[in-house]
Amino acid sequence: MAISVAAVSCLPPMPDSRPYFNRQTHRKVCLFPQLRPRIRVRIPSFFKNPTALTGLLGSSLTVALVGPALAADLPVLQLSEPSNALSLPTWAIHVSSVVEWITAMALVWQYGEVSGYESWKGLAWGMVPLLGGAFCACTWHFFYNSESLEVLVALQAALTVIGNFTMCIAAFRIYRAMAESSKDV
Predict the structure, then answer these.
(1) Number of domains observed in the structure of the chain
(2) I want to staple 7 with a disulfide (CB 3.0 to 4.6 A). Which of 26, 53, 154, 171 is the partner?
């Protein structure tokens, strides 16, 4: 993944799609109208209410920090899990990372559709092997790192290597498409 991030960071900057003021016609002109976002995002009213948002964040923080400590004190909630079981916060990080990766794939795909640069969709496809590796890791941890499922560790490693190469190739394709489009302008 570090290779693909480094490759993406070497890309030329995207052309500015903001309108500028034309002094001759006295109108705003957009140089690259195909880059103008066509998706309108609606923010739910819940996020505009600071009291509700503060309550949600506070209760989430309370559950995350105090919940595991209180559960350990109650004998009713004592589960017989092996010593190598992941804690609830560790599971939260694993699951949220997978959800974040899927969201990133969807956003990259949408950017490819909105901007008209189809090479960005290739980046979303290049992210798929890394998602498979994440599923392997979560599956292995779900079964308490069972020795009978150690093949998942090797599969995760292979998918990570393949994913790094596919992301690098996709980043190079984006670079090449951007270089060609800048020559046309």
Answers:
(1) 1
(2) 171
